[in-house]
Structures are given as structure tokens and as C-alpha cells.
Amino acid sequence: MRMVQKNKLLLLSTAVIATAVIAAPMAEASSYSVGKGDTLTKIAAANKTTVNQLKQWNNLKNDYIYVGQKLTVSAVKKPAASNTQVAASSKPTAATSTKPTSSQTPAATNASTYKVVKGDTLSKIAKAVKATVADIKKWNGLSSDAIYIGQQLKIGEVKAAAPTAPAQQATPNKEVPSNAPASEPVANLQSYQVLKGDSLSKIATKFGLTVAGLKNLNQLNSDLIYIGQVLKVTDASEQGEPEVILDSKEIIKSDQVIDAKLSEEKAINTNVTVSGQAIYAKVLNIADSLTGTPYVFAGNTPAGFDCSGFVKYVFSNAGLDIARKSSNDYFMKDTTVVDYPVPGDVIFFKNTYVEGISHMGIYIGGGQFIHAGSNGVEVSKLSYDYWASKFVAFKRFNQVK
Length: 401
Description:
two-stranded antiparallel ribbon; Membrane-bound Lytic Murein Transglycosylase D, Chain A; alpha+beta; 14% strand; 4 domains
């Protein structure tokens, strides 16, 4: 009886081992738990992969990660392809599109991918390949219109006939001047003029909104609208700053500089002192009082601010003696990263209009910050796709104790 049991156990163990050996290649993706100071760039380098691969494997829409997050850092291995699959995969595919010449456009190559070149926009590329901006964003999992030089974009099936213009293009819009270029990205429209037959539901669907969201944007108390009424269809503060095409190589270089700086800093994990709290209370009051002040490049007075000029003015008037510098200088020389930000700490962003640290604001709590953006001094949410994708760190001026 014991011999029979031993044989059964031996057979069962053998079966389990055999099953494990067979199944192992199906799921060999390794994972990584995000630690303090980690960034996608640093994790990608440590695991000999790329940021784009990490984002693809983990379905990330931006570079925002958090301590303790589990990330897949290698591809899941699939079973060996059958002879039929191998034969099919060995067929030549469409060549990757390169910069079009005067006699060649992306549409002419019928390529399955397109390489972004200087001067490109999603609108321009969409027009060339006879698609829509929405199509390209869908094919590439893009949450915004941001693209960069050298980026490979997937281009779906090229339509044989010219596509019907998106409904938004045919819609009158008081906010768009009559002499606007034909290639103006439709996705950038911020308002819509109500036409005969329109309803909030119809308009919301057209612009990818909910009826509740559309009513909230326009402070409507009912579903009643009228012909000729102009409705907001885009939250300007959610859009972030105007997108520009940046050099991917320079982005990589600047990311390395940023990572190196954060790595050498000993993060602050304590709250501010009583004197620091007094300064922060003034900072928040002054900043709030300046909401609506227009944006002025290099501005540092209530007549107009840029981002670092706004921060300098607020902190100086709150009792902190700081010199007028750029956001990059404040990041590199005058601040230290914090583990647990409190209202009054500063927040930094990268790659907004130039590569590297290029924007900053003041954290006000609840995942919100106040800053001088292109729309003037306003409050924005870090959860917005644009700001989450540009976020770098919360820091504290070294003079604040």
C-alpha cells in the first residue's frame, strides 16, 4: 500500500514538474516594484529596455509612476510560432516611412508606420495619410496631440477614397478666425456653436464628452440650449500648454541629467517648521490673489508672469529672499526633493516647450497646483494627462525649514 502511494506521489510530482516546464515559457515576464527616486528612464536602463517598451507593457499613457507600483519589465514570451506563422511573418512588410520629399508624401508610400520629422503635427500627418487626428491617436494610444521628432507612428489602413471631413470641421466656430490655416488641428477647438437639431447629448458625443461634463464646462443648470449658442467643448486648464515637437535625443539627455540630480539629493521626509508654515500660509494667500493674471514671457510682476517669475514674486512677498532664476536653475540649485509634499512646496515639470526642466508651480494640496501658464495664473490638476506626463518632482526651497 505504501509502495502504491509512493508511486502515486512520484507520478503526481513528475506531472507537476512537467507542467511547470511546459508552461514556464508562456509567462516569463519579470516585474519590478517602484522605489523612491525611480523614474521610467532609470528603470528602463536598469532592465536594458526602453521607456516606450515599459509604457507599452504596462499600458501607461504617461511617465507618471508611484512608489510601490508593480511594473512589468520584460516581454511575456509566447509559444514558438508554427511553420505557417513563421512563413507569414517572414513576408516583407511596408518600409518605415522617412521624411517625405517634395515628390513623395506619407500617403504615397502606403506605409504601416510613419517617422515624425521636424515641422510635423498630427493634423498634418493625418491629412497626408488620408486619416483623422482621432484615428492616429487611437492607433498609437495617444492621450494628447504631443509628438516628437523621430517618433514612429502606426498608420492604419489607408482609405481608398478621401474620407469625409470630421463633423467638427464643418461646424462654424466663432473662436476660429476666418483666415485660419486649413491644417488647423480640429482637436484644438475650444468652443462650438449650436446648430439646428443639436442636443447636449449629440454635441457631447461629437467631442468625446459626457452630458454632465459639457454642462459643467458651461455652468448649465438644464439641458436647454438654443441655436447660435456658443458652448465650451474643451477645458483650457486641462489641455495644458501648447504642444511643441521636441528632439527625442535631447529629451533622453535631459532625463539623464534630471535623474542624476534627483539621485544625489537626500529627500526631505519631514514637515516644515512653524516659521516655514507661516511663510507657506502667505505663499498660498498671495498666489490665490493673483489668479487670472496674464502670462507674459519673462514677466515677474502683477502686470504679467511667466512660471518662474510667478514663483519668485510670490515667495519673495511671503518673506523668502530668493533671486530671479529660471525653473531649471531653481530645480538644479535652490531646491531639494521631498517625499511627502505639503501645500506651499514647489512642483516641477519637464519637456513643455524645451527639453528638460521647463515649468514649475506651487502645490496647493489635493493633487492641484497654481502656476503661470499660457492661459495666465490658474489652478490645474496633476491628474490631467498633460501635466501627469510632464511631472518630475515635488521640491522645497532650501531656505524653507
